[in-house]
Amino acid sequence: MGASLFMLEKRHKSFEYGRYGNPTTVVAEEKISALEGAESTLIMASGMCASTVMLMALVPAGGHIVTTTDCYRKTRIFIETILPKMGISATVIDPADVDGLEAVLNKNKVSLFFTESPTNPFLRCVDIEKVSKLCHSKGALVCIDGTFATPLNQKALALGADLVLHSATKFIGGHNDVLAGCISGSEKLVTEIRTLHHILGGTLNPNAAYLIIRGMKTLHLRVRQQNSTAFRMAEVLEAHPRVRCVYYPGLPSHPEHELAKQQMTGFGGVVSFEVDGDLMTTIKFVDALKIPYIAPSFGGCESIVDQPAIMSYWDLSQAERRKYGIEDNLVRFSFGVEDLEDLKADIMQALETI
What we know:
The chain folds into 2 domains: 10-216, Type I PLP-dependent aspartate aminotransferase-like (Major domain) (Aspartate Aminotransferase, domain 2), CATH 3.40.640.10; 219-352, Aspartate Aminotransferase, domain 1 (Alpha-Beta Complex). 42% of the residues lie in helices and 16% in strands. It is built from 14 helices and 12 strands. Strand 2, helix 4 (73-82) and strand 3 form a beta-alpha-beta unit.
């Protein structure tokens, strides 16, 4: 009687308890679903919350997942240190290694392929359509973290992925003032994740949801500007004698440039590059910049610069960092909505100091 009454009253839609949602978060979820072309979206307290809850909800105990070499460090730590406690193992492949993915799918009962595209911080791209068809033929799900792409530059679900995830803290929020994460896909899969989310918590408060909604009002304007600025600055940086190499999908030198042109309508607002120098030279360059904030985030109106060796990977030795391709001279630059010429002049003067 109690259960039937519960269903009859549809109490799961009545917001009877804050952890289960509220009208403001529902509006944010519906807007993100519209952007992604998804049946359903779940919004949570952070991007990492979305990633970890998704993995725990969809991968069974003793299951196997596949992920890629280049990814957000905390995601890697969760996969390498927390999932094994649940008997979940992982195979790590290069983002472009489709043959490697096929070999893993043939050898193991894979539950999920989870990757960023573009990846952090080298902006590698995964052939979403190809890996989705391959994984589905073997009964595996595909989840794409599209944070660097945004829903405007890349439609992962339309390309065949089952789920698309974002740290909404970044481009979707867009103002460097709110933490949030979201995951979109079929109602069936999102409901499975939502069920676990209601148990674990990680709820987004209504005011944060409001800030996400506010951010989405200008998403198309911001991303258009950031795409344009990042692309032009990537070309400038690649031609500069004090820059060793540039990582940006919009450049012909990028290993997945042709793929990026096929599956993305813009290449994003983040450019990674290596300056011609060592750790201290790079610190000098970063400190000489006047416009960007020095911070470990990206995607907001304000430009942000990050030197991974002393920020995201500060606790590792140089040898340990190099295992992940993180050199002392690597810089990740998130371009905001400032004037292109102002940003260019600032970066040029900072490069002159080294």
